[in-house]
From TrEMBL:
GO terms for biological process: dCTP catabolic process; DNA protection. One of its GO terms (molecular function) is dCTP diphosphatase activity. It comes from Thiothrix caldifontis. The lineage of its organism: Bacteria, Pseudomonadati, Pseudomonadota, Gammaproteobacteria, Thiotrichales. CDD domains: NTP-PPase_RS21-C6_like. GO terms for cellular component: cytosol. Coiled coil: none annotated. It comes from the Bacteria. This is NTP pyrophosphatase, house-cleaning of non-canonical NTPs.
Amino acid sequence: MLPKDLVDELMHFRAERDWAQFHTPRNLAISLSLEAGEVLELFQWEDRRGAALDKVMPQLRDEVADVATYLTYLCADLGIDLEAAVREKMVQNRRKYPVELAKGSAKKYTELRAGDEA
Ligand SMILES: [Mg+2]
């Protein structure tokens, strides 16, 4: 979902360095997960809000950029249209989480329809 010129820049960056040879789907999936873990690490011992969140914001920006970069490579290599995939997921999620059942609730869709017994 990054703009095409930025995706092209990422692909050019990788091609210049001949790194695509290391970017198997497995390696990209692992890297994506590791970078998401680095996002999580920033919140490991603290539920950061306000000033505590501001303190880590530069690192958070770096890590979400890493996540977006690996996700972009993975989607590009596997021919996944990320925008289309997200749009399809929204259709599914609207069906799974109708407003009248899901509003204000953190329950999983399987629990929403089970009522209060879940
Ligand atoms: Mg990182």
